[in-house]
Amino acid sequence: xxxxxxxxxxxxxxxxxxxxxxxxxxxxxxxxxxxxxxxxxxxxxxxxxxxxxxxxxxxxxxxxxxxxxxxxxxxxxxxxxxxxxxxxxxxxxxxxxxxxxxxxxxxxxxxxxxxxxxxxxxxxxxxxxxxxxxxxxxxxxxxxxxxxxxxxxxxxxxxxxxxxxxxxxxxxxxxxxxxxxxxxxxxxxxxxxx
Length: 194
What we know:
By secondary structure, this protein is mainly beta. It has helices spanning 57-60, 169-176; strands at 5-11, 44-49, 63-65, 85-90, 93-97, 100-105, 111-115, 146-153.
């Protein structure tokens, strides 16, 4: 089965939350703030691959989700960034969002970030200043982009048959190849490419 268009739901990873934490060590009475920042959410990246031929995988797996970023923790430990989700698509794939082209992958190995992951929130160590020495605030991580995208595969034919109507182009194609075009005794029977 050949598929040249598909619709997918994309959801990039959410950024990790910042931490509210204070330094606790022996012989240190009042340790300062040491909450780490949240990690960045994973992005969804499409990569053109010459060995992939169709978009059929998107029919069976129409939802793509990248992992979230990790939360920050004490001792100024930042959260782990979410791993980017790399999706292989055929060369010649066009990605549209709301009818507008956002990526056109024309060469093998070409990559495009389709949905960007959210940034991580700052921990309370980030908000420390000479005026505010013990902040008890931290930021929540930003959500990643989420939307529906239309994917199209632009195909270039290897061979083209040109001729007058009712000249036998579809009959020739059916006898030489495994194609099953409609054949009838009226003009313009074939309206779409085979």
